[in-house]
Amino acid sequence: MVDLSLIERWLTGWSLSRGLPLPFHQDGGLVVEVGKPDQLRRHVFLDARQALQACADRIQDPHIFLKAAVAPDVLRRALPERWRIETPGHLMGCPAPMTSHVTLSPEYRLAVDVQKDAHVVRVIHASDEQAASGRLVVHGGCAIFDQIETAEQHRRRGLGTVVMQALDSIAIRAGASERLLVATDNGRALYSRLGWHMLAPWSTAVLPSP
């Protein structure tokens, strides 16, 4: 079951992965001060009820994001028309080690690094081009998978699975008992094949720039 503490575990890992301040509780939700020109702050809620709506009423500037574990149409109905609903995501979990295995082709090699709080896995092509990558933070027994990406010209070769396998090996060694991520539509299909399951829809709203 999804509750605010689960969302906080994911958001803490997301923040650590990206070198941002840790989330804090405010007015029934969570807040991360992102501090980037295109995303100043994000307010994260369990649902789209009164706390989120009150927060939305106080926001007048663009680049401040509202996020909630609800379907896009639910978030749309909760907000005034001035808010734009972004492409939805999917909050997913995996309680045990992943179930699939792919062998890396000889034209690629795997590189593993640590950047502050995040483990970083990269798949490098023989041309020295980065073909795929992903990040992992393990915090309080929870493994948060983040920024799993495959370059377009290297897709459909199992590299996303290779990255997830490598990250999961790190999670296993760290003794993680919980795995969390937020997936795109395309990513959801991959993660489902690896044993992940949907916990909740994940929706985002932001005020358009003038």
From TrEMBL:
This protein's source sits in the domain of life called Bacteria
- Coiled-coil stretches: none
> Per the database record, which ranges form the N-acetyltransferase domain?
81-210
* Name used for this protein in its record: GNAT family N-acetyltransferase
**Provenance organism:** Telluria antibiotica
What is the organism lineage in this UniProt record? Bacteria, Pseudomonadati, Pseudomonadota, Betaproteobacteria, Burkholderiales
